[in-house]
Amino acid sequence: MDTTHVQIRQQLEAQLDHPGRLEVAAIRVALARLENGTYTECCKCGKEIDSRRLVAFPTTTTCLPCSI
Ligand SMILES: [Zn+2]
User: From the CA of 66, how far away is ligand 1's center (Å)?
Assistant: First the structure.
């Protein structure tokens, strides 16, 4: 797991203690995706999600083209 993912994971886990801005369900999905190695994979097209997008929206499960 690269450093960015470690930081995102810590960020998500911190959010779980103080839920509100991000949905708890979405955080759990993101953590599960980090766990099983599919975090960077778009759930719609299977392509890699841009890491800048993941940093900006840590709970996203789709790449930018699929989100529109
Ligand atoms: Zn996609």
Answer: 4
